[in-house]
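Hey all, sorry for the wall of text incoming. These are the three entities for the joint prediction.
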Amino acid sequence: MSLLRTERLTKHFGETRAVDGVDFSVNEGEFLSLVGTNGAGKTTLVNLISAFLLPDSGRILIGDRDITHASVDERIRAGIARSFQLVNLFDDLSVLDNAALAIFAREGKTKRVFSLAERDTAVTQEATELLGQFGLAAKAQGPAGGLAQGERKLLDVAVAYALRPRLLFLDEPTSGVSTRDKAQIMDTVSSVVRGGGVTAVVIEHDMDVVFKYSDRVVVMHEGRFLADGPPEAIRANADVAKYLLGTDV
Amino acid sequence: MSAPQAPSLVRRAAAAAAVLAALLVVPAVAGTYQTQLLTYGLTLAIAALGFNLLLGYSGLLSFGHSAFFGTGAYAVALMMRYLGVTSMELFILGGIACSAVLAALFGVVCVRHTRIFFAILTLALSQVLWTLAYKFFWITGGTDGLRVPFSKLTLLGGLVGFPGADAFAKFITSYYYYVLAAFCVCVALMWLIVHSPFGKTLQAIRDNETRARFLGVRIWRYRWLAFLVSGIFTGVAGSLWVPLNGLTTPDVLYWPQSGKIVFFAVLGGFRNFTGPMIGAVIFNYLEVYAVAVTEYWQITLGVILIVLVTFLPAGIVGSAARLAARFKRRREAAP
Amino acid sequence: MEIVVIQVLNSLFYAAVLFLIAAGLSLIFGVMGIVNMAHGSFYALGAYVTAWSVAAAASAIPPAALFIFLPLGAIAVAVIGLAIEPTLIRRFYRRPEEYQLLVTFGLLLVLEDVIRLVWGGTPRTASGLVDSLGLLQIGGLPYPVYNLAMIGVGIAAALGLWAFVYRTKFGVLLRATAQDRRMAAALGIDVGRIYSLAFGLGCFMAGLAGAIVVPSQAAVLGMGVEVIVLSFVVVVIGGLGSLEGALVGALIVSALRTITIQFWEEIELAALYLIAAIVLLILPTGLFGKKA
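and here's what came out:
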């Protein structure tokens, strides 16, 4: 059974059908790329699944549980986490605190008042290890706002990953970053996520990145799925070439 | 804008101990008037401490904290007048209870919305309480207010009292140490709160509400809790203040009183722990000496506030910390 | 029965005043996204300037002509607003909300004391204007024509503002800038000028409200802050950023206020606050509000 599936999921913005009756299913352990031109509906789809937006019609299911109207924190508890296209971090807190906070939230410790956050060694240790996995250990004590763009992107992913989700949505984890850093970021993300056995859906524009790292590629166009399959099949797909790559196969 | 590295725990503890030592000897070296003045300063510092849990740590600007300060003050006055209570401990408990109820009820209204509405709603709340205080004059004494004479007050469960002709000096000294003890307790508690996971979560919500929400944090619940704690601390400040003042009037609920509390935090710098308290103490001295100089104290306050916000948003303590950090970096960089 | 009619008319009169204030506040918020904490002080300024100029000119000018000082008072306030926006407030649009609120709060402190400095503590009146329009008999009870005239002014202002925002070219520019500042700038719109004018217009409305009210109620110290609570209740109920909301909110709040004053005067403000709280719990952005 698929880990997540949507049934005829639809969202309009006025006249525009941003997501138009989409049946999407994600299988456990996949590393999936979601691609398409701007306005194809990728971010909207992720927003709908992560409860940033509510759908106009259709259903979203995790396993056999209907989460279409579940709140943000209910979906997180069901195992969904996400990062953001425009990096969303706690800029005035340290890098370590950013990671630690996600762990506190996961463990339900955020209401603890009569203990010092830094003294919680279990959390601090896990946060430090996590930062190590993402290559951010050296910057742990500095404020998150002081990181370079590539590092910020990594931290955003790390914070979402710290929630130990079953399904991780990454919204353009390499946007705004130089080509060399892109490879570095995707190497790190891909190895950590796969190593942790987490299913991932990555929204991505850079087709080289897509073809290199994904098990499966889903192409969206004008709110619908245009193609869905392993990278080689997508590369050979004529429709995809026409709409997305602007080339003839 | 990155915050300068916080000095180590040991150095901060040493600094705190030094300050405490200095505070302990004040009555011995400074005389009655100065001791009284500093006691006022300490009560205002507690009010600022409570206020800043919201502004500095939660990103919520309250323009109505006089509601809590005044509630704490009136709770004491009403308990003394109508219930015949004389014990300061009971007064403090009463202040805590009343502020807690007020904060709990109005927190539900105030924190559910945008930060701008929060500012509006808190201001309106304090105005409402102010009109109630002077309209229900048969209960609250109206504009004449209610007296809280120290001669009727007892500290430490009745152990210390102030009857007799020469009691004033004794009162000032004893009360100073009492308030100092309360101040230390408040500072320790608040320090713990802001460094706890709860405190970190508040700061996260302040920095990025969306991200916090997507970590599964229920935003408004935490804001409500912060509002509750903040209200209680400022209420305690009001309760401690009123025996010193001897009198509470509706002025203590009026909006300029809220403005002063805001000013303490901006003056000292609201992005750090000690800023607002230091701002409160400094302001206390400024007010006493400036009121003697100019009648138009409010214009001065307003202009200084505008200047601070425009040119020195980190406040005195924040700016000093940055200067120190820059100085340190330059020293370390020099061969 | 006549008393009810009179109360309704009083309520409409005060609703006109509240509408002007709330519409000004909403306009500034809608275009620039800031809440001017000193907005009530502009209202107070309008009242004081009008009262003072009426008193100063009363000996030289016939009473009917004194009405010119109502819009003049509003214009004076608008000019002050036009001077303040670029110098004091503009640099705060991109900074976090706290700083905007703090700087306008500082402005509030300054303006309230400036009023005290210039005009002192005695209340200022312009009741001659009310007298000059005479009384109308409503079922045997006398009622000032002035109030009716000002209700008319309120209606005219509502229509005028609506026409201005939705029917003129400047209104289009205003709405475009309100929706998307960067887009507007990219289209070549001088955003700074729009902001100044919007702020000036908002202050004009507040000043006009003060000018209208002062012949009927004396200008007193603290009137600026007192009206803040009421105007905030109006925008909470009606929705911040909405013109219709300001109108509907003003009517509701004024009606509620008239009723509570009738039956239990002391709790007027508390009752209004409670009602605002209840409205917020059910409709977080008010009746017509847009999300901030």
